[in-house]
Amino acid sequence: MSVLILGRYFDMKTTIILLSFMISSHCFGVEYFIATNGDDNNDGSQISPWKTLGSGFARINAGDTLTLREGIYRLVEENNLSVINKPNITFQGYTGERIQLFGSATTQGKVWQPYNANVWRIAADFFNNDPKGMFNNHVRVEHQSDLDGGRDHDFVTNLVNPNYWTKADINGDQCFRSNTGCYIYLYPAIGENPNTQIYELSQRSMARVAGNGDYMVVKNIEFYYTQSTAIFFEGPDFITLDGNIFGNTSNGNDNSYAIRIWDSQGSVVKNNTVFDSKYWGGVANSKGITFMVSKAGQPNIVEYNEIYDIPGFDAVGVKSGVSNLVVRYNYIHDVYSAFTPGGYRCIWSATNTDGCQDTDVEYRPGGNWKIYGNIVVNATLGVNLPGYINDGDGNLIYNNVFYQVQSAIKLGWDGTFFNVIANNIFANGETGIYLQSGGTVTTVIDYLDQYVSYNNLFFNNSNADVHLRPSWSGGYTFGTPYSVSQFQTQFNSENNSFSADPLFANTSTFELTTESLALNAGDGSFWGESVVDIGAYPYSIFSNTVFSNGFE
Fold this sequence. Notes:
552 residues, mainly beta, Pectate Lyase C-like, 3 domains, 4 helices, globular
């Protein structure tokens, strides 16, 4: 038996446990306060707040609320904040006030000295950790990386472009993990004196939330300049991140994830702004929101977020082993890839000696994502379904808008199967659906058992509506481009799909005008209807928006 709570279905057993837990703990919880002018010797009340987050998390109990008052909180000043392991805690900013958590150390009060005609430097010994990111008022200063020598800081002799930095010793030779005897070298923007600026260099994340941190709520807080991630959830279920900002996350030769959720079920990431997550050692591990090894049970949900400026890889992605993720009603722009579902993964276990079998309790499947109601603008990839992965099948991709996306759907050969692509608008990009081989020679027929695609609208795609790249030979346009009508005729596919101007009312919300042929042209079975509109607004134009709780 299932019941509907706040628009989501829960089985009755889970509902009883959830409601019992909330009644027994949260209703009797206490609200405590932290303020920049507080004192850890206070009692934590609103009129006598604590000062540090570490003190607050150490002293509150399950079911309590920890509220931050307005101001900037520097995580480098926290001496007792590494692991949070208590259930049903709410961590929030005070309503109507701006709360900012900085994971960085500042150069304010430090004096930059000229090193040569273009480069300045300051001693790095005041940093606790090797900095991986540098910012000036939320604008990233690019890192001069030695990608040939271990993806680390480069020699100062290679620091030849404005708005770049590195870390080196007094002679300009590379420094690595230690900061002792090292300097931060900066080639500032042309004409800029760094002593007139304040720079933030990333140092740490907030904390790791461990497996007992179920039902934690984080809301109305701005996280900036963190290293590796803002906050790391490893094991807790039913967490909620609501109305936060996660910006300017950095890392070197490792992961950079603005939001990082491992081994969870029933968690909701909603109404957040996520931007500028970058790993300067490469691209694969730069992500905005990432999951790994989800648990069987309630799906994790990503909804109503704005995600942008993820230059490396995914706005929403995985480290494998994540199935049944619901990704809906997000506005994603200026990223490399919007979504990559990925394949299976086995969690580590000392008792698992037979590798990774799908019958093992450690096995976590991928695939079966529901991706709908999203708007993706200015991206290289919309949905990335790579070839040569295992158990990443059964993804549903429907009622999305892909606008100015190079490849809205990229499908690799012999990868994911049983994908459904329907009711989407592919407009003003290069290719709507890109069939890309993984090195062998393939034909369109080889892909047709991997997906079905119908009731889509294709418009003004400069390369093709559907493109076959049969091998790695040649560049992006190598192979055979097809218009939707050609593809329908030759392969009896894309049923009820067509080419037409969608007639967007604007290119910010991408609502349709009353003259659009996308109206009532979509398959309504996803919504329990006979027909719906194609695009991100399945029900009657202007009655719902992607940023309001209206569809379900």
